[in-house]
Amino acid sequence: MPELPEVEVARRAIEPSLTGQRISGVVCRTPKLRAPFDPLLHQRLLGRRIGIVARRAKYLLIECVADHTPSPAGAETNPVGWLILHLGMSGSLRVCAADTPAQTHDHFDLIFGQQLLRLHDPRRFGAVVWHPDNTPSVNPLLARLGPEPFAEHLNGQWLHEALAKRRGPIKPALMDSHLLVGVGNIYASESLFRAGISPQRAAHRISQARCAVLLAEIQKTLSEAIEAGGSSLRDYVHTDGGHGCFQLAHLVYERKDESCLRCQTPIRQLRQAGRSTYYCPKCQR
DNA sequence: CCGACAACCTGTGAGC
DNA sequence: TGCTCACAGGTTGTCG
Q1: pTM
Q2: How far apart are CA A178 and CA A172, in angstroms?
Q3: What percent of chain A has pLDDT over 70?
């Protein structure tokens, strides 16, 4: 899946097709992904017009506006609701013709005009959730998330303070979405390599100056990956259906025993909090 | 509160 | 060929 860059690439890819379209149908082919589908999803969405397509962390947020609201006087209706999508580990989105036959693991369609947005997710760790008003940030899926990695107020001092009580290793801490969103397993390893910091270093023992370097490398790694069109691994497929040909080369991820691109030392792999970590034992301290 | 781990699923590749 | 096992990009809940 989809780490933050892949989700942002998907957002940019689907937004032009979606914005301004009227929703004419909804298809759910699976009882549940991460959670059961809302059984009333069809009636909640039908006839609404799609506004902006936003992103928060690895969630996509689709603004759905009811443009004629024949609400009786006094009846409080919310003209704006949000469809919240998550791609889990294996999800992908594509926009295709409305008569395109569904394949195995095509779980959800949002139909508009002569096209549809289709969610394909073999492992079904994704999510499709309706948020009924214009405050999606308070949705339980989003309410407790940390800041976006590109938020203005983030700097070395902020990261240093955020890590002050973390006695465990930095790499799993970086992946904690309550601290900071958008750093998944690939880019955690990549950012730490680029910052020259060992994934095993205790988080609270990284100086403020090195926190500034780390944050800058996280931001550079993520933005370069977005510009490159996201990583293209295994089952991740770009929204146009083709595999990305501009994949950002990984410096350490999945390079166990290959030589470090900086110092030729063999890259090592270890397991932290149940996830693979890749690093150079010489370049990272 | 922190941190490690299992669970949620299917697909794939390695090894026998 | 076919079986079993380990592992895969995320998130959440539980337990120590």
Answers
A1: 0.93
A2: 12
A3: 90
